[in-house]
Amino acid sequence: MTTVQTTVPPPTAAVRPKTVARAGLYGVLALNVVVVTVFFIQAGFASNALIVLGRLAGLYGALLMAFQLLLVARLPWFDRRIGMDRLTSWHRWVGFGLLFTLLGHAVFITFGYAQSSSMDPVNQLVDLGQTVEGVFRAIVALGLILVIGGVSARFARRRLAYETWHFIHLYTYVAVVLAFTHQVAAGTTFTASSAATTYWYVLWGVALGAVLLGRVVLPLWRNTRHQLRVSAVVPESDTVVSVHITGRDLDRLPARAGQFFLWRFLTKDRWWQANPFSLSAAPDGRSLRLTAKTAGDGTAALRHLKVGTRVFAEGPYGAFTAMHRTRPEAVLIAGGVGVTPIRALLEEVHGHAVVIYRVGSDRDAVLYEELRELAHAKGAELHLVSGPVSPDKLAPAELARLVPDIGDRDVFLCGPPPMMNAVLGSLRELGVPKPQIHFERFSLAG
After folding, report:
1. CATH no. for 17-221
2. Which keywords does the record carry (predicted)?
């Protein structure tokens, strides 16, 4: 049976949580840019303008590298407010900024010293690597970052398996350590004053500590505390299966409808593989449920999980929750298996809701009976929209017909990327304000 939560809805916040979190991140970065610039000026300038530019580029590169670590630390406070897909996107663009900044550092420094010594740039770089402590480590770090930047480009990323890309990306941490030791050994600004030295140690300590906390300590602590296990495996269709999970003290797990976990099922052949799946039912403090569509060997193996299998879950992650509501009424739009977080959200949202479920054919509508029962219990409207992709059945005119007051509602959207892009275009044409549109692309899955 579907249960309906009856908690009193929280008041709509005057300031959006996402705005607060973004302002916090931007503010932290801007403040550190100012601090780094001040320390750089206090350290004095070299006589060669190229060396000055190279040192400044190197300092900003070190700052961006630390900021990169913060973006991927998976800290719950930021993740719940911004969303891992957006943090991942920012990480990507900051990464390219870091790449060009460090390249600029290497080029300016090499040509600057070559100008002073009358050596050619190649021999000057070799000489620096052989005679200046920490420079060779910096060259290795830059090489690693170039490789990582190359495999992160879209044309390369599409051709790599997620596990391969992720393994290569782990070398970022090696590059971070090498770059830091280079800064300690050769950075004049680092050693210019005790205040500058303390600042850089604190900066790197906070960045690396955030990664350790968010990606190691917190997952280990939560899984030790909750002891998750598979309690049931329920086929929903020929290609879709639901996995029910129980554990200890689940009422203390800070999960919300719309969020996802990285699930590792600790079997002999799958313990090493983590898959991101959304909760397909709102957490009730007693159990969790995920629903997945077969898309490869990993998801196909879910059907064969045995009751009692231990589960290691990282999360909850994601900002696709009712926490970001701005209006008293909502529209929930799902496409295909994207219905899983939408079905969970329907349990939690308050006020009148309209649910639109887009599928290729009626037989593809997994969890539809649950949706219908839940919609009836909550007084929500439910529209099953089926048929081929063309013509677009969620075009602006169709959406306006299904939900005439859509501009006055929050819109939660989840589905395949082409469908989501089309619906986002329709919402723009209908003039739905951007703060009322909530979606997450779950880009962590690669």
Report:
1. 1.20.120
2. 2Fe-2S, FAD, Flavoprotein, Iron, Iron-sulfur, Membrane, Metal-binding, Oxidoreductase, Transmembrane, Transmembrane helix
Q: Which one, of 25, 45, 27, lies nearest residue 35 by Cα?
A: 27
Asked if the 322-445 domain carries CATH number 3.40.50.80, the reply is yes
Two tokens, residue 282: 């709102």
Amino acid, res. 113: Y
Is the Cβ–Cβ distance between 302 and 243 less than 8 Å?
yes
Q: Classify 227-317 by CATH class.
A: mainly beta
Q: What is the value of pTM for the model shown?
A: 0.85
The domain segmentation of the chain, as residue ranges, is: 17-221, 227-317, 322-445
Closest CA to 293 of 361, 366, 388: 366
